[in-house]
Fold this sequence. Notes:
By secondary structure, the chain is an alpha/beta fold. The protein contains 22 helices and 43 strands. Residues 1-39 form the signal peptide.
Amino acid sequence: MAAAVMRTTRSSSSWQMQVQWCLVFCWVVLLLLVLAVHGKETMEKKSSSGASTDVTDGLEVYMVLVSGQPVVAYKGGLSDLNATAQLFTRRWKSRHRTRDYLVKKYRAYLTKKQDELLESFFKTHRRPYTKLYSYHHIVNGFAVELTAEEAELLGKESSVMQVEKSYRVQKATVHTPEYLGLPEGIWAQEGGFLCAGEDIVIGLVDTGIDPTHPSFSATGQSPYRPLRSYRGKCEVAPEFPLGSCNGKIVGAQHFAAAASKDGMFNASLYFASPLDGDGHGSHTASTAAGNHGVPVLVNGVFYGNASGMAPRARIAVYKALYRIIGGFMPDVVAACDQAVADGVDVLSLSLAPNSPPPGSISTFLNILDVALLNAVKANVLVVQAAGNGGPHEQTVTSFSPWIISVGAGVDDRSYPNTIVLSDKTVLPGTLLAPPTKGPIFYDLILANDAVQGEGNPLYSPSDCQVPSIFNKPLVQGKLLICIFSFNFVFGGASMQQVVTTLEALGAAGLVMVVESDSAGSMFTPIPLTIPGIVLVDAMHSEALLTYYSNRTVKDATGKPVQFGAQARIGGGQIATYSGQGQQVALFSSRGPDMKDFNFNQADVLKPNILAPGYLIWGAWTPIGIDSPNYIGQRWAMMSGTSMATPHVAGLAALLKEKYPLWSPAALASALVTTADLEDSRGIPLQAQQISGSSAPSLQPATPFDMGGGALNINAAANPGIIFDAGEADYVAFLCSAEGATREQIFASTGGMCPSLLGRSTDLNTPSITLACLNGTQILFRTVTNVANNIETYTITWTSPTDVAVAIAPVTFTVGGAGEQQSQQITFTLRATGISTVSSFGHVTFVGNLGHQIHIPISVTNKNLE
């Protein structure tokens, strides 16, 4: 039977894929909540005379951050508040109390210090002032009207940390172009978004495409010129008519022979054409190369303007995956083969094997990886999803060093929401839903208290899936409390059916609580048409249920006779941005890589790079059923390494446009060696891990979590030096690796093993991975100058634990473009005994003209005996 292939979107049918880590934003949500609650206490400061401030020419609003920790971060340090602040911090983290007197006390202290600074400053300048906001909880500072001269002077005060002029903001959707710095970076270098990716063809092996989607329209775009280098064709079918390939879409074909032979393919259901009947393929295509500035409308709500990473790149579609059934490896390999034959420049694969290929031993010589090696031989850069098996170790499903394997990152966007109870308690949650109408409070009713009949035995009444079991007059006009249980993850319950229930009953809105933190960790925010909120934290859910119980009177039989609980729901359709660096998503697969399907470790680093892959808006097809929450929609917000992969594919296309003669290895090296290891504050990137609550814990990310780091395309556009490799190098790598004979390698690759075999660690990758270190090991890396200037580089490094590293030479000079320099790198164990604990380091190359790159080091098995 043909090997099945899965898409690497975060699937609702898998525990590992469904471990919900979206609550990484809960902390941010909470902070924003408190700021919203207390921000109303904004006050205007006047001069001692009490005169009001007139708005005068030259005054503009500035944000000022001052020394001292905000409420949520303060850990003590002032003698008069030390104990109080520490006590508050413990309470904040454990109970999220927003009205605790300790909050007020510390906030008042911060306000006092801010006002003292302002009073002193404006006393000197002899004018009244207006403080617009006082920030306490997530930052310590204020917003105030200043002239440019005053702003400069205020910035010189010893207690002032930062002064920043206010600027306009607008709603954004994919958001990652701005988050990754494309508009002012590589897009600008390539002539703006109207030119970015021009004439580069990205081949996507996926579920097809919806050619009618505005992300792929050629109307209103600059005319696309013919491509001489691309030879693909466009299939025509009743549902994929002539003209579907319009210049933006340059080719579209489908591959279903293996699926048909397996008896799984139904042409009327899955479409024997390039049409996307799922949604996944349209989503990935729009992320890689969708048109710029396309409005995202879901349920009539505008969520911003979408853009692909390379908005002028061309899209070549190779449909080999299908809704419900997934795909089959022969179809996938055929699609890859055709894509290379057609002349794509970049190949994007948001897919991975469900299980090891039958009879395979070497991961590098499975058919797909061999096919992809040959794609690289044809100068095609291959980008593949790393998989969604995280945070567990050795779960990557993209194996070979000639492939860029992509992990999923969480960017800085979230969609917070709140519910206010009648006793003024405010609870944070999430859901892309409108607020309840007006400032009034609405009665709450628990689903189980509104049941009047029997429904579908597959669902609990608290799932709110069957309208007929509820007493409509009792629910009408109230907020219905439902429970998000594992039935929504594994049992077929859906949020859209909840909406159907509420609309049928005339409910005013939805309040959904979770039965446990583990259930809450699996909820992903989705857009709804009715007012609603999901309290994803079990503690907040319990608080709401307790409030409801205390205000509901029941008779001796347990039947409610009087309802007294009331609430109103805020709006959750506005995104907030924290500015944080990427975090490795909880579900993103982790290394180390394996050289065979017995899980023996390889001398190869996987994943290679990190890119945004959580809550990504992208194109959808109205007939798509990949997610029931977006049936009938043209846009969907999805998570998975499937979503991260087209980010890298699109950005690689920009790099390919800039450097058309670079090899795939050179392009990959530029992407990996310039990736970010820290956020803008200099804090090391973090990786999400399973915790005991609905929110994941964080720990410093390792190369096994993120590879070289978070992709920084603007730095990749000018790396200075790169690590290059070609077909012969990869063949030598295969020959030195265990698990294959010379004959097998020649049959697979057409390459001859060298007479003198080296070691797999000698492959000139932009990383160093030692699966097993015994005593001392020497290996080599060679850099190639890709700049036009003579530059001198100095090498520094941090050594893995228990390992001494020596590099020679530590200083070298490279001349014009193409000149090379080799380094000898020696690893020596400094400890005795055996260790299987992975340890990590980095090698950094710093040029005197400003270029800087780095490569990660990882060592796992260490043995002196």
